[in-house]
Amino acid sequence: MPPQLRLNAVAFVSPQNHPILIRTLAQPRQDELKYHYIAHTSLDVIDERIAAAAAAKSTECYLNLLYTMEDVAVYGYVTPLRVKIIIALALTDTVVRDVDVITIFRALHTAYRLSVANPFLKLSTPLENVNDHAVSLSAGGTKWKAFRRRVDDIGRALGAPVTGAAANVY
Amino acid sequence: MFVGGLDPPQPPGKNQDPFAVLSYRLREALLGQRKAAVWQPQKDKTFQVIIVDKDVRFPPRKLVPPEDPQYHAAHSPLSPLTPTSPLYPDGLIAPIWIRKHTTLVPSVYVVFMRIYESPQAARAPLEPSEADREREAEERRRDTELCADIAQRKRTTSERGVKLTVVLLASRKMLDEPSLDNRLTYIRRQSGLDPRAALFVLSPVSPSEVGDFVRSLQEALYEPAVEYYTNHSKRVRRKRNRHSQSAAAYSAPPIAGAAGARPLRPEGWTVRYEYKMACFAEFRGEDEVALKHYQDAYSNLLIMFGSTAILPPRTKRWAEAKVLADCISLKVCKLYLYNNEHSLALSHHNSHLRKFADFSRGWGIGEETFEFWSWLARQHRAFAELLEQGTRTTLKIPTHYNLGSSSVAAAAAAAQALDSGQRNVLELDAMRALGLNPLQALQHPGFYYYMAARCTERRRERYMSTTKAEEQANTTSPGFTNEKKVDHLALALELYTRSYELFKAHSPPTTQGHGRLTLWIAYRIAQTYFESGKFDMAVRFFERIAKTYRREKWDSLLQPLLSAWYSCAKQMGDTGLGVRLLFEMLGHGVRTQQGDESSTQADLMEILKSTAPEGPVVIESSETQPILDASVVFWKHNVIVNEATAFQLSIKAKPTVSLSALPFVSLIVHFSSDIPPVTVHHIASDTSEVAVIQRIDLGHVEIPFAQDDMKSKKVEGCLRWCPSGTIVFSGSISSDTPAVVKISKVILTLQEGAWKLEFPLHPSSDRHNVHPSWLSSADPIQFIPVRGEHHTSVSFHYRPHRVEVSLSHYAPAYLGEDFPIVIHVTNADDRDMEMIVDALLQPSEMDVADNFISLGDERSTSLVKAVPLGIISPGVSTSVTLYLSNAGAAYDRVVDISVQSRALSSTEPASPTSPGSPTAPAVVDRDETLRTLIVPTIDPIHAEQQVTYRRSSKDQLGLADLRTYEGDFWDDGNAGEAIVTTVIRCMAPSGISVESIKLTRQDVKRAKVLDCSIEQDQDDFLSEWLPGDEFCGRCRISLSNSDEDVSEETFDGPGKYEIFWRRILPEGTQGSLSVSRFPLPQLRPPTDGLVALLDIPPIAKLHVPFLLRLVIRNGHPSRAANVVIQLEIDSSDPIIVSGLRSGRIPIILPGAEETLVWKLIPIECGAVKIPRIKVMDRRKDIHSLASLEAEPDHEGEIVRIVDIRSDERMETSGEVPTWDGAGENQRDGNELSKTPSSPIILVLP
What we know:
The complex is a heterodimer. Chain A is an alpha+beta fold. Chain A has a single domain, classed as Beta-Lactamase (2-Layer Sandwich). Chain A has four helices and six strands. The N and C termini of chain A lie far apart (about 35 Å). By secondary structure, chain B is an alpha+beta fold. Among the domains of chain B are: about 1-60 and about 105-120 and about 130-245, Rossmann fold; about 615-795, no CATH class; about 805-905 and about 915-940, Sandwich (Immunoglobulin-like), CATH 2.60.40; about 940-1080, Immunoglobulin-like, CATH 2.60.40; about 1090-1245, Immunoglobulin-like (Sandwich), CATH 2.60.40.10. In chain B, helix 6 (about 205-245) runs antiparallel to helix 7 (about 265-285), helix 7 runs antiparallel to helix 8 (about 285-305) and helix 17 (about 515-530) runs antiparallel to helix 18 (about 535-550). Chain B is flat.
């Protein structure tokens, strides 16, 4: 049995590099800003990897370890529609199996898909750009709780102590 | 390597001693070849060279002189056993030991010396003189002195096992002396030098040759040097072994005068020996061995640290050991990296950090002390520096991202293998394939510098907290006093800057060094500047970073940055910047004090009240977030001129900050087009509380009639916003000219004291978080979300014209007629209209401009443009007829008809007041009605023609016949006739009335119409034809022989049928006269070879003789015919024949003919068969000749007999005639009616 991975933070970033949702699951929550920075800086590495993947005509979504910084290892994933998912795992001195990380990413991707599929997201947005990324951005907004709940569920499944109250608001 | 005997450096000048130059060059070559560096993975055979004096002395091996009897018991001056040693009594190893081996004691000692050369005297070569003998004696004496000198040096070096090598410098001439060899041998023997690689001779040479010499010298000495260190290692290993054997029973040797101090423990000795062996192995370049020894030393050190009894914390020895452990750890990392074992190096580094962090906790210098963080920062920094050194030369940072599905498959396979419990040797590889230990993924040194900087920051935090504690306790520990001297922030700044540079260097090329990672470091640098009070530097950084963060709309990063930036501005007293930043913070909803939503505006008001600006300030929010979100909604997008439509401009405040105290004085709404702006002036509301939703009526806005009317409209209202409060400015708008109107900008003005600030807001620019909505009811407040397009602008149009256009026509159109299409135009509007008509015939791919349209006088193959209909009053209709003339094939024609109308209004618009953008609607009130018509077109008359050919039975005229020379002679010789049958069918659904039909003859060279059936009964055709009616005409054409080659047999028909007709319209009238033409088909008469034509009358009378003529005609162009004829009469035949029964006729030349005549008398009535005649051609072609041999009784080819009474043939198929049996039948063409085997004659009584 591989050692339990600890999920410290999850970030969803839109194809236009705007944050959709950045959720800190680690306790204590004082480092929330740090994870915002990690999500933002990861985009550099992700862009580089995407370019490399495009050059090699690869369709792989999983972008592997992006970097390690202080006490976290940052992993990246890009969905076929270019939504970037970034997770920060607590750094332990063990081999992290790619299969496990990919499983987490798949779960997060599913959570995102289910949340964006919410038809009410488009309720008050202008008609002409229903496919605009504004819709996906609003999925992470404070108004919609389901996405956050789904992400928290995944965090809880990985053993992160999640409290419902301390929602990280973007 | 020590090098002695090279004179102090003198730059080479003129007239210098060549040996001085040589000596200088040697120094250069030796010193320049290798710099001692941290990262030196290459193993080339070069030495570290130290230039020493010729009479250098090595440090003594032991303190007592060798003559002393205690010499053997004594230890090295650096040994812990020596009381005067700094390590006495329990030190591990001192840096001076390394220095001893790197700078004080060499492995090889090279001495450069001059060999004596006697001054050259001119002498006769064949005259051995006294001088020679003197010279030899002198040489011998000098050499002996030299030997003594060398021998003395040899003694000191061999004492330490150091190899001594002597390089004798001699002039080039000396090298050629025959006596040199003897002298060298003498010197070596006398001075006791080694036989190998101990004596060299060098003469002054060029720099490149000096280099060669230095290289070969080192190569020769490399082995002795390695041997020297190997011997050291062996000695140390012996000691270690001896020591570990006796370790169990080891008791400290009695050391006088050190009763209190405890001697070094066995573990300590092991560390000492292992460390020494590792060093020697490293000197030898044996990295693996060195690594092994270093690891052993390290693990023994760990054991020592594990027990406070062995190494009591916070003692001098403990501190030394700690430094030693750090050094060894770094060495281990480096050796791993030399071998490209990145993950092992990193894992060692991490485990070192972890283990010593654990130890530190035990020693009371855990994470809560600045000592710990200082140590950690140093470790990270050292590692980073090592990596940086490495990456400059050979070290490559591995990439952790490999593409390709194969890795995924391998990982899956490996996972399976692991799950099934097959843990074997492959496990490590499998684990690697599975994934990565993130702790063992080596990254570029920037990351480690960053870590070091972070640790330094922590160190500072701990220091600060300690400062407070110390102040309270009023005591100072020595460590703290030290710490006081450290400028933490400068340290952190240096580390961050180095990290920044490395991140910049390692950032992907696309970002041009401005990646987000570098920005992050830059932010940390700015923070550090801020904390160290260098606010101007911090501001410069903040400015650059903020640009990117604003562009990326990553507000969560921008907000803390703005707060810090504002603090800087506050510290610097820059009010302009401070105000700007505060407004940006308001725009982002940032509070200067957490929990107080009006803290930001309070700060702002304080600045505004207390200071005065340098000039008017405009807060431009094009790239920053505006403090208020504006959105505009026009209720309708398309509006008719002079009709009013409602609009609402909503200006909304942020939810997290309050703006209620900001003294806005006015708001100006600017419209596009020529609508004057509307100004809203602030008036204080009655209640102190600001409502969440306020509404201010702007009234009606319109384009003024005259220029001088351009006065701004003024309205009053309360311009205060509470958190997430909204003010809705509502109004209506109209325009009397077509225009597109939007709200171009809204300018909000704030005035406080001397400050006057303007905020341009752009409601049309799209911000993704603003969803427009329409305030439908103020009480209760209700908004309708506006989701349609174009809500940000309104477009004024003229009212569409009510023009009715209808088309009438009777489809289908017929080919060849002018098909009328009537366009009815009715003006159903209430204005006079001037109208014009355009018609466009769509081009088709099937015809090339065979079709025309005509409208009035205009006629065109495609477009008839601007045919005026004149001014049409309301309610009046007019019509115009468009004619479509079709030719060519039958398909659907497409016609576009456009009726354009222009209203002739009484109020013609004045000269346009604005140039008007291209997208603006036309100023002229014009409209267009479009119709598209598809006209099916068919052919009204269908004609089918069929041609048959008949042979001629007329005699050919002889060659000399004078008639053939007449000009109008029609030589119809044997060409025969063609019969053309034409079936004409009416296809027009409405029927046509045929006015005339005729065959127009045309002059064609080889054919002429003899007669035609319709010329006789033309009247039968002239009637109304209904669909399905069919008529038939026959026409006989005489063909003539051409003078040219007969094979050119195709020619045009000699005429055409012309039918003049009119369309029968539904109301019984007839359309215009149209004509359809059907030319006679092309003629291709068939040709004959050899043929027999049978000519008999159709009727005979009983017992009255009649003639049977058989014409045998040779139509072949080149072959003569040899014909045999047989007439077979049966006795039962009811006919009597007189004439040739059987015989051969003369040879028929090509083109000639022969006629045979029989007289026949019928003796029975009825249809009587003519006796059978057999005509055979005996002439064979070559192929047949060959077959004749095999078939001797072959009689020849049977020649076809044609009864000319029923001779009808289709045209030839165009094949080249052949003369074999099969070809002949074909060549005859297709007989329409098979000739009966025997022709029949009707015999009447």
